[in-house]
Amino acid sequence: MTSTDQQPLGSPFSAATTAEEVVAGHDLSGRTAVVTGGYSGLGLETVRTLAAAGARVVVPARRPDAARAVLREVAACEVVPMDLADLDGVRSAAARIRDRFDRLDLLLAVAGVMATPERRTGPGWEGQLAANHFGHFVLACELYPLLAAAGGARVVVNSSAGHALTGIRWHDPHFRTGYDKWLAYGQSKTANALFAVHLDALGRGDGVRAFALHPGRIITGLQREMTRREQIDRGWVDEHGTVVGAGFKTPSQGAATGLWAATSPLLDGRGGLYLEDCEVARAVAPDTPMDDGGVRAHAVDPEAAARLWDLSVAATGATPIVVDPGRDFR
Fold first, then answer.
1. Alpha-carbon distance values, 186 to 5, 160, 167, 189, 303 (Å)
2. Which of 64, 101, 201, 300 lies 20 to 30 angstroms, CA to CA, from 155?
3. What is the pLDDT of residues 298-324, one digit of tens each?
């Protein structure tokens, strides 16, 4: 997949489309989905919408009791304890899911952190890269046999327009030489996009297709590490916390692109694409203002995606996805 493949498909939806509108008419009975971050913000909207369409939904949760309380009225939903920053815990959660199900139709990586103070996890990894990328990377690798067994699974990874801030800092991905919370966030979002590119390249022979997306500008719990003053200064909210920024979406509108990626027949036979506003995003120049949308070439570059994959396997010890050289990749 390259930036030249980033061409809109003529989707009937838009930035104003809601989660319910995207899934209307889809019967997901018999489908199983895993949604990280599924008990707040965009993840909660995603879970509610999938369940209402008939899917069974599994929600890995760092705070399982809180998740169960929020989701108690959602039918066909179960919670599995998991902290994305704890890779042993990610493996344990994946093992529980493998014991419970024999196939997985959808994996939606919605959970994330943004602009956090400097934190180290594992062997000194930068915290945003660890939570946003490494945790989801290991989860997808551990669940891959279930995805392959579905014969048409989709993996959907929430990236962000923040990917425009930086590519992968190959010389210093863990910010050993000086921490910048926004560059760290931007790198993790580029990693999310590149992860989808290479997962799709590996998985398409098994019918596993992967997409990354920008959900849009939404005020949710993702901003919990930012002060009110920071959000006011950026023009996002007023002194009372009311959203005043132009172009902000509701949580339902923010969840729509991920659900479109998971269900749209327009994406059949496609993958490795970066999406926004329920459409394939256009490739844009590096100096394009971030709020103008589009995807930068560094976030869909297949060579960078393969390099990041190798780095991630080496760092995490994730179970490699082995590609049969005799498979038909058409």
1. 22, 8, 8, 5, 19
2. 64
3. 999 999 999 999 999 999 999 888 776
> 102 with 149: CB under 8 angstroms?
yes
| 325 within some domain | no
Helix (H, G, I), strand (E, B) or coil at 108: strand
What are the pLDDT digits (tens) for 109-153?
A: 999 998 899 999 999 999 999 999 999 999 999 999 999 999 999
pLDDT for 228 = 63
d(CA 138, CA 110): 15
Average pLDDT over all residues of the chain: 92
Query: Would residue 179 show up in a list of annotated catalytic residues for this protein?
Result: no
- CA–CA dist 254, 161 (Å, integer): 13
CATH number at residue 84: 3.40.50.720
Q: Assess if residue 326 is contained within a domain.
A: no
As a whole number of angstroms, the distance between CA 297 and CA 31 comes to 34
Which domain covers residue 13, as residue numbers?
Answer: 3-316
Is residue 110 within 8 A of residue 159, CB to CB? The reply is no
Rounded Cα–Cα distance for residues 200 and 210 (Å)? 5
The partner residues of 273 in beta bridges, in order of sequence, read 211
Q: Per the residue annotation, which of 39, 144, 185, 274 is the catalytic one?
A: 185
- Please, are residues 15 and 7 in contact by the beta-carbon 8 Å criterion? no
- Of 282, 315, 319, residue with least CA distance to 124: 315
Q: Among residues of the chain, what percentage have pLDDT more than 70?
A: 89
Print burial letters for 195-204: b (CB count within 10 Å at least 16), e (below 16): bbbbbbbbbb
Question: 67 with 59: CB under 8 angstroms?
Answer: yes
Name the token pair of 106: 């959808």
Beta bridge partners of 109: 36, 157
DSSP string, 142-166: HHHHHHHHHTS-EEEEE--GGGGG-
Whether residue 330 lies inside any domain: the answer is: no
Residue 200 included in any domain:
yes
Domain count, the chain: 1
The SS3 assignment for 259 reads helix
